[in-house]
Structure formats: structure tokens, C-alpha cells
User: Which sequence fits this backbone?
């Protein structure tokens, strides 16, 4: 078995290694690579792939773990030049670009249309292109929830129930969330953010994880204010929707006006910053998805708990996206690739993810093992699922050209979060930039 992880220090050489992984050993062995962005799931994949290799002599699989910040940029250049990993993870935001370009294996043709029956229906529907499925569902999420530092909450006199029952509102007179976050934000002199003596330049513990984060912050606030992020077919972004502008204004104010969240200088380019701050005991409320359960459970050395997210003027809003593993049509080893796709989409192959609690498997027969794992750990995962009861999830990000749009709108959006550009003005700039490449 030859399983190698390519981490941040090796990103620059990822393309070369991926191509090297497609050379044969003595003309007999098929060497294929699988690309993903999650270290925790990669650890689990090692066990799954070891079992796969034992059952499939002559196939050697290497794992290529590329950090989220570089993942899609390097993937596009590698696949676009006729190379890239034999299999790779995709999310909904970037899926259509690859499907439309003919870069993905048609799963209905490769594994048979009946294979869909073994996977979560919501995940299947998210990855259809012209009525065909172009990826094997791997992971699915519940809704967004709150990870709470129980010790910091107790010190501030705030309860989990208060936070989950709170409601944010653009009208300060109706906002019951901000006062709680101010109580949880403490400077080095022991003053909370509601105190006139509070020093925002010397914060010891922040109350909340507001940041330029799409799935669990931006989309939640937009959804819970009745706003939109895209039009229905994903061809156009809708940053200038008045309800969307209100949502962004609230998030940005949490950071720059009330200082209950870390400065954007720390979070704009580091998607893991708030999680690490939480694990260091310096953040009271970390708003995220189930994919961080294992990281928090393994690394938090303090008492923590989970709770439902607060509501907004339009109620509680959350998205619940899925991740697929796609087959690269550039592969030199289609038979080996197909066998691994079939394995990863099977209950046996997905059991490793479920048994570890690393993520929610999109293979339906493995879901019970995931639930059992967290019950044994004594972790209440219900807030991530009850938040979806009785309501439709907010649509996940889609669009054939979303990658190019994101590259265009991200710089002006970062300026908004940094407080360098007024929210309404900055969102208009972001919208204009995205429209130019739509």
C-alpha cells in the first residue's frame, strides 16, 4: 500500500505528483490519486483505502490533501491542462463548471442509475447535470449549529438556551442576540463589550465567530433575513438584494462596530481561524457545521456543548450541502478509478467515515453508524438536525461560472469585512465585479 498525504508545504508540487501517480509500475499496477481538502476525513480514508487495496491487488491509491484555500485554484489549472487527480472532491459551488466542461465521469453510466438509491436523495439532486449524476455522494451536512464553550458561558452568566432562543435583528430595539454576545466578549481588564470601559484593541475572549465564511455565517444571516444570494439558476449573484444588504451590515457591525468577533484582518484569509480560536478557549460561540464535530471533540480541553443557531427576522435559516467524489475523465486508469468510485459509494466503504464520526456519510446505510458513534461520545448532535425540521434548507451555492465570479467579487467583499468600504457600496462593487464575468 502506498498512501501519501500532500499538505500545505507541498501544494506547489501537487500537480506534478498527481501526474506522477498515473504512471504504471512495471506496466501492471494502476496508480491513482484521490484529492480532498479535509485532513480528518483523509485519516479515515487511509483505513478505507487500505481495505480497498487489499481487495483489489494491482491498484495503488495515493491521497492528495490540499488545503481549502488553494484547493479549487490548483484543481482548475491541473484538470484544465489535461491532468489532475484521478478522483477529487467537489462541492456544489464549483460542480457545474467541471460537469459542463466534460471533465467528470458520468456516474449513471459508470455505476448504473440504480446506484443512486444507496445515497441521500438531497445529495444526488444537488449533483445532477442535464439529468445525469456526475459524482458519488460522500458527505452530507446537517444544518449549522453552535459550538459553545460552557466555561466561558458560565463566567458571563449566559446559557445555551438563551443563545438558541435569541433573535438577531437590524433594529437594535428588537435584537436579543447582540447583548448576549457583548456579555461574552471580554477584554484583558475584565470588561465586557457592553461596558463603556471595554477596550476593543485588547480583547481576551471574543463572543462570536462572525467572519467572511460562506456556509455557516453569510448564508445563515441572508436566509434568516429573507434575503437571497443567487438567482434560481445560479447565473447571477444578488448581493444588492435589500434583505441581503441588511444581513451583511449586521455581520460586519458585529466585527467592526461592536467588536464581539475577531477582526477581519485575522479571518479574511484563514478559514480555520475562528475554529482554532475556539479550541484555544478564546472564543465563546463558534458557529459551524457537523464537519467540525470531530475536530472539536478531539482537541477541546474544556467543557463544551452544542445548541441551535439563533433566529433572524425570517426565522432560523441554514443550508445543508453535500460533497461528492468525482471521477476525472483525464484518468489513465478508468477501470481502477471506477472500482474506487464504487467502493467509496458503498456502505462498506463509507462505514469508515461513519464509524469515526468524521463526517455524515451520504451513503444512507452508513448513517446509523455515524449517529451511534456520537451517542457513545456523549455529544448531542441534535441541534444540527432539529434546525432543519419543518423548514426547507436555504439553497446551496450553485452555478456554472461561480468560481470565476468568486474570484471577482472576493476582493471587494473582503474590503467590506475589513471596514474599508461601506457595506452597501462594497456589495454593489462585489455585485458589479461578479456580473462582469457572469
Assistant:
Amino acid at each position: 500500500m502506498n498512501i501519501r498525504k500532500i499538505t500545505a508545504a507541498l501544494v506547489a508540487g501537487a500537480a506534478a505528483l498527481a501526474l506522477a501517480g498515473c504512471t504504471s509500475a512495471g506496466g501492471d499496477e494502476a496508480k491513482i490519486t484521490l484529492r480532498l481538502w479535509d485532513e480528518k476525513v483523509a485519516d479515515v480514508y487511509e483505513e478505507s483505502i487500505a481495505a480497498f487495496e487489499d481487495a483489489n491487488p494491482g491498484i495503488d491509491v495515493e491521497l492528495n490533501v490540499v488545503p481549502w484555500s488553494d484547493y479549487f485554484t490548483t484543481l482548475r489549472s491541473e484538470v484544465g491542462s489535461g491532468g489532475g487527480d484521478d478522483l477529487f472532491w467537489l462541492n456544489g459551488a464549483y460542480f457545474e463548471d467541471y460537469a459542463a466542461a466534460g471533465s467528470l465521469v458520468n456516474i449513471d453510466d459508470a455505476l448504473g442509475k440504480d446506484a443512486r438509491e444507496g445515497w441521500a436523495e438531497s445529495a444526488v439532486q444537488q449533483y445532477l447535470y442535464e439529468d445525469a449524476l456526475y459524482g458519488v455522494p460522500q458527505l452530507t451536512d446537517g444544518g449549522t449549529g453552535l459550538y459553545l464553550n460552557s466555561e466561558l458561558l458560565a463566567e458571563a452568566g449566559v446559557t445555551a438556551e438563551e443563545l438558541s432562543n435569541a433573535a438577531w435583528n437590524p433594529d437594535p430595539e428588537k435584537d436579543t442576540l447582540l447583548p448576549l454576545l457583548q456579555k461574552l466578549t471580554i477584554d484583558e481588564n475584565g470588561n465586557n463589550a457592553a461596558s463603556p470601559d471595554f477596550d476593543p484593541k485588547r480583547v481576551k475572549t471574543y463572543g462570536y465567530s462572525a467572519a467572511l465564511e460562506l456556509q455557516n455565517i453569510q448564508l445563515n444571516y441572508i436566509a434568516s433575513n429573507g434575503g437571497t444570494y443567487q438567482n434560481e439558476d445560479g447565473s447571477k449573484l444578488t448581493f444588492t438584494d435589500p434583505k441581503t444588504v441588511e444581513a451583511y451590515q449586521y455581520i460586519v457591525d458585529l466585527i467592526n462596530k461592536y467588536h464581539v468577533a475577531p477582526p477581519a484582518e485575522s479571518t479574511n484569509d484563514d478559514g480555520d481561524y475562528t475554529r482554532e480560536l475556539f479550541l484555544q478557549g478564546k472564543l465563546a460561540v463558534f458557529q459551524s457545521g457537523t464537519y467540525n464535530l470531530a475536530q472539536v471533540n478531539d482537541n477541546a480541553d474544556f467543557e463544551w456543548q452544542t445548541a441551535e443557531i439563533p433566529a433572524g427576522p425570517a426565522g432560523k435559516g441554514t443550508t445543508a450541502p453535500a460533497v461528492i467524489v468525482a471521477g476525472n475523465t483525464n484518468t489513465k486508469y478508468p477501470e481502477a478509478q471506477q472500482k474506487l468510485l464504487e467502493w467509496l459509494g458503498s456502505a462498506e466503504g463509507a462505514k469508515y467515515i461513519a464509524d469515526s464520526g468524521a463526517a455524515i456519510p451520504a451513503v444512507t446505510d452508513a448513517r446509523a453508524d455515524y449517529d451511534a458513534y456520537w451517542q457513545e461520545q456523549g455529544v448531542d448532535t441534535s441541534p444540527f438536525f432539529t434546525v432543519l425540521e419543518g423548514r426547507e434548507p436555504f439553497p446551496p451555492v450553485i452555478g456554472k461560472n461561480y468560481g470565476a465570479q468568486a474570484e471577482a467579487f472576493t476582493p471587494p467583499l473582503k474590503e467590506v469585512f475589513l471596514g474599508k468600504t461601506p457595506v452597501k457600496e462594497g456589495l454593489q462593487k462585489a455585485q458589479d465585479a461578479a456580473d462582469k464575468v457572469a
Observations:
- Residues 1-26 have pLDDT under 50 and may be disordered.
